[in-house]
Amino acid sequence: MEILAFGVQADEKPLLEKAFAGHHDVRCLGVFLSEDTAPIAAGYEIISTSVNADLNNRVLQTLAAGGTQMIAQRSTGFNNIDLDVAERLGLTVARVSSYSPYSVAEFAWTLALAVNRRIVRASNRTRDFDFRLDGLMGRDLRGRTVGVLGTGKIGEAFTRIAHGFGMELLGWDVAENPACLELGMTYVDKERLFAEADLVSLHVPLMEATRHVVDAAALKAMKDDAILVNSSRGGLVDTEALVAELRAGRFTGVGLDVYEAEAGLFFLDKSLAGIEDDTLARLVTFPNVVVTSHQAYYTLDAVGQIIDTTVQNVLNHVGRRRDENVLVPRIG
């Protein structure tokens, strides 16, 4: 059987081909799954998608009509898939329920340190042989307060690094993580967290309850010199409200690896065509903002685990086995 994989990055292609070798053939496409590209999947029983695929009602109907029976998503998040429609059409949907939490946690700290110590500005200056220190002053993190929204595996890994810096730990989640409590974390309501934290980092999934959890009110409650980092999902932050606060001269720095309207932009080269998204175009002009293209997960370790799990999900489907990675059909 040949598997059709959409949205495959150049670094990812040889890893996918090697992982599937001896099991199934795999055809790797650089294009993302969308209404325009869905007809390509005709005749493929199993397809694999990336987190920026758009699996809406029309796309799923096109897939089902073309003979697709199984969708293996190469990510933990699945808010881009209409699971109700998939179930109605009899499609099996599986995801990667977990992979290296250190990849994302370490990158979140990379963003935090980059904006705090003005690394991008400093690097750009020295390329022009400008070695002045004006405007590059940062702050010690030791003794300051970090607020962690979401203390699951990634949030816990982020918290362990914060503990190593000697920071005061505040957390917010639906359930307290015993490991974070042992590190000295105090769980508080998110209003207190926003008000007291010098650094806020987001590690919650995107769902209706968390959409724009960082809204205009939350942003206004934050300290004027706070740092905000989002390496989870773009929809957690009200970007329009964030731009308004940045225009008012607030925040020491903002590090974003995700953007709520990133579909159709991230993972693509828009350097010649430009973009029509005025909000993103404005966002990247602020000197205290660093935007990266959803690369927090992108380590050899994490991508390898994602691919290995994807291969196992396909083998389980073929062998009519199910585990916790299967989203549809639902159990119960």
Automatic annotation (TrEMBL):
Domain (D-isomer specific 2-hydroxyacid dehydrogenase catalytic): residue spans on this chain: 8-326
Gene3D superfamilies: NAD(P)-binding Rossmann-like Domain
Pfam families, alphabetized: 2-Hacid_dh, 2-Hacid_dh_C
InterPro entries, per database record: D-isomer_2_OHA_DH_cat_dom (IPR006139), D-isomer_DH_CS (IPR029753), D-isomer_DH_CS1 (IPR029752), D-isomer_DH_NAD-bd (IPR006140), D-LDH-like (IPR058205), NAD(P)-bd_dom_sf (IPR036291)
Domain D-isomer specific 2-hydroxyacid dehydrogenase NAD-binding: 110-296
GO molecular function terms noted in the UniProt entry: D-lactate dehydrogenase (NAD+) activity; NAD binding
Enzyme Commission code: 1.1.1.28
Keyword NAD listed: yes
Coiled-coil parts of chain: none
This protein's UniProt keywords: NAD, Oxidoreductase
Transmembrane segment boundaries: none
Record PANTHER family: 2-HYDROXYACID DEHYDROGENASE HOMOLOG 1-RELATED (PTHR43026)
Family: Belongs to the D-isomer specific 2-hydroxyacid dehydrogenase family.
Name recorded for this polypeptide: D-lactate dehydrogenase
Origin species: Streptomyces nymphaeiformis
